[in-house]
Amino acid sequence: MPFGAFAEVLPGVDGLIHISQIANRRIGKPEDVLTVGDEVEAKITAIDEEKHKISLSIRALSEPAPVQPVEVEEAYEEEPAAEEDALIYEVSADGVASGIAPEVEE
User: Fold this and answer.
1) Where are the domains of the chain?
2) What pLDDT band is residue 89 in, cutting at 50, 70 and 90?
């Protein structure tokens, strides 16, 4: 398909390898890298049980694993900003954020 390649995960169970997940470089068409009948290793990146979809990635197996953040404790010499110096945001249920700025003295 122009948007990716389907791969059989188990007999009767197929997953989609999106074109962006086929290689570590930009490719024009899936058939530039894959041909029908190729056996490839791919990582399952998502399973949507409701839609009966499995997303696969060849690229995820060739990229280095993300570095886990290390917890660092730092001593701060300055006091945290006073509440009146803060910008306050409210986010509505539909995701719209509105900011309430403190009054600024001139």
Assistant:
1) 4-62
2) low
Q: How far apart are CA 17 and CA 80, in angstroms?
A: 48
Under CATH, which number does the domain 4-62 receive? 2.40.50.140
What is the C-alpha separation between 15 and 9, in angstroms, rounded? Answer: 6
Strand duo 13-18 + 53-57: pairing: parallel
Residue 96: both structure tokens together = 């719209």
How far apart CA 96 and CA 106 sit, in angstroms, is: 30
Q: State how far the Cα of 80 lies from the Cα of 55, in Å rounded to an integer.
A: 45
pTM: 0.56
